Amino acid sequence: MPRPATGRVATSLIWVKQSDGSYYCYERSRMWKNGKDISTKKLLGKADVKGGELKPTRPKRTAKGTDRTNQETPEQNKSESIIKASRKHTGMMDIIEYIGKVSGIDEDLLAATDTPTAQKIISLARYIVGTDGATFPEIEEWMLTHPVPYTFPITEDVYLNLFEEIGLDESLRQNFFKSRLDRENDLELVIAYDSSTETSVSENPESRAGMNKDHNGKPSIKVICLYSLKTRRPIIYGKQPGNIPDIISIENVVAQFAALGVKKLIFVTDGGYSSEDNLGVILHSQDHTLTRVKLSWSWVKEETDKCKNDIQSVLNIMETDTCVKGITVPLTRNFRYKRIRGSSKKKLSAGDYDTFQRKIYLHIYYDTARKESEDREFMDDLIEIKNLIANGKELDDQAERKAVKYLKIRNYKEQLIVKYNDKEIEKACKHNGMFALVSDYYKEADTALAFYRKREWIEDYFERFQQKADGNTSRTGNPENLNGRLFVQFIAMCYIEELHERIREMKSKLGISNGDSAHDTKDNLDKEKALKNWLKKRSMFRILKWFDAYETVEVSSEIQKRRWNSESIERDRLFLKLLGMEA
What we know:
With about 575 residues, this protein is α+β, with helices and mostly antiparallel strands. Among the domains are: about 1-60, no CATH class; about 185-360 and about 440-475, no CATH class; about 370-430, no CATH class. The protein is built from 19 helices and 18 strands. The protein has helices at about 75-80, 90-100, 105-110, 115-130, 140, 155-170, 170-180, 245-260, 275-285, 300-305, 370-390, 395-405, 420-430, 445-455, 455-470, 480-510, 520-535, 540-545, 570-580, and strands at about 10-15, 25-35, 35-45, 85-90, 190-200, 220-230, 235-240, 265-270, 290-295, 315-320, 320-340, 355-365, 405-410, 415-420, 435-440, 475, 550-555, 560-565. A hairpin with a 4-residue loop joins β6 (about 220-230) and β7. It starts with 8 loop residues before the first strand and ends with a helix. About 25% of the residues are buried. Residues about 65-70 have low confidence and may be disordered.
């Protein structure tokens, strides 16, 4: 008695070798029915090797005189013979893709999250770079002509959902930051610390009235960045409500770096973070600092007055800037910090201030060009006030205070006489041209000055963030969405800073002999000088837009597939070669 039929269909693949060494792959279906094994076979395709990628086979030819009723209709033949073609602007996108690859940005992002999410983030970031900071609603149309890793349309719903997903996924961001830190090979991590503000145009609970750097009086979000002064790369970003004081921001950053495993950290900050409390927080955390301090601090003023005459010696000229002279004063001072936990031994509670002692180096500088500029500015302002008084004009409060202090005004025989108060003016200009840095790590004034001036790079970063990455205004009322949007902007800034640095390095070497006979020919050096002049006249975005004119055309049909690119000129090929790309 035959076994009962189950109706189950079993399938398997059969590979049949052909005379030319290729393989035909068939799908065999077997089913037990009415006591019989019923088997059917269907051709799936052709492969070069057994188990390889399948390719479609051509339709079987029909013998002459056979019935053609089951053959394809003219409409079907027409549809199969249609050529499919696409044209994309690939020149600019090839450069951006190359930067993401060689810098490790894309690799670090793919390691931090799943591939589709990483592809969306990379696509949005490249859109920011390729459009000079256009808003996201325009990306769907832009993707029609520019290839990006994520091949599906990125609609408004797609990127808003992505922002929320990123904002809720703290692991994604911290893993990316950790990967960027791991690429900093030096044992010393020299970090420029600075912040900016985004004016909020929506009801975001984190937008609060505080320090708004646009001075428009609107609530804002504080955006923080930590920037490597050795590799010229942004490492970490963060956001906080607009009213959070600097001291808390620094405490949070110190804790974040400790969690990410940084051993030796050197904070470089400007006068905006110059306070003894901020200095105490960094020094107590066992991290190092290089910061500008105010000459008005009592102990700084005391040391500055002591060395004011000695600093004028030519022996104190800085090698990094011959207009600047500097002296270093080693000091041991007490600093204070706010305790997180109480101490019964010291009889202090949590939140009380505790003191500790640390050796520091006070670097005092005298800049002759700065002295001349500050003196001129002071006197120009005073001359204007003097003329206003002589002409009987009304002064504002600030001008009134200066007039009382630095001018001598009296009436003589019904004539108004205005003279300068020499002693007060000399006292006011006493420290013009002078400034001071404090560090517990850099012992030499020349080295400290060189690293401090590099912190200007982070100011350039924030300027580009606002102008080139749409970072001036917050456009979302959801804190998670804002964090996700900031992360995408941060990735875009990683691209921008990397490309800026590579173009800077390229320009520094163009047209200069390097001892290589093949390189140092007159013809080659002339070409490099011409490229250097071309680069000097263009911003980074204009350079990218120039290469955006290069297109790739891809045509495919049932017979074959072909791809070709726009022809490039010699100068463009030289640029791509020196950038590290194959032209």
